What we know:
By secondary structure, this protein is α/β, with parallel strands linked by helices. The protein has a domain at 8-12 and 30-121. It is 29% helix and 13% strand. The strands form two sheets. Strands 1-5-6 form a three-stranded mixed beta sheet, covered by helices on one side. The chain has a three-stranded mixed beta sheet with strand order 2-4-3. Helix 1 (35-46) crosses helix 3 (62-82) and helix 2 packs across helix 3. The longest helix is centred in the middle third of the chain and has 21 residues, at 62-82.
Amino acid sequence: MPRPMKRRRVCSLPDNVSFGPLGKPGDQEEVRMTVDEYETIRLIDLEAFTQEAAAEQMNVGRTTVQAIYADARKKLADALVNGKLLTIDGGKYQLCDYSEDFCGPACRRRSGPGHGCGHGRGQGQGRGQGPRHEQEEQH
């Protein structure tokens, strides 16, 4: 019997959840990125975390982060190169609980308004600064 999937810790939901090419007429193909995939892109590419540090921040193993990150990069590249609509939603995640120690050094909620840069030293604040929320992927 497989081990149950662990919920990935995420600081906050993205401020923007839909991205796409401007001026492209008609129905667009869509690429769906989960919130935990978005978080790995934020931590590794924006905050310059190593995979090990991102794994610790998200409360999962490094190999899990590596797999999530690979999926996220593929989806991001598909949306950019092929002009597809990118939406961010769903996944198995848990928002940080706004406790004293927050979720780690890149917690967007502890830093104030705006977006962080480099290991959580910049400003950043996401939506949903209340109690812990859990979200499951919906299909």
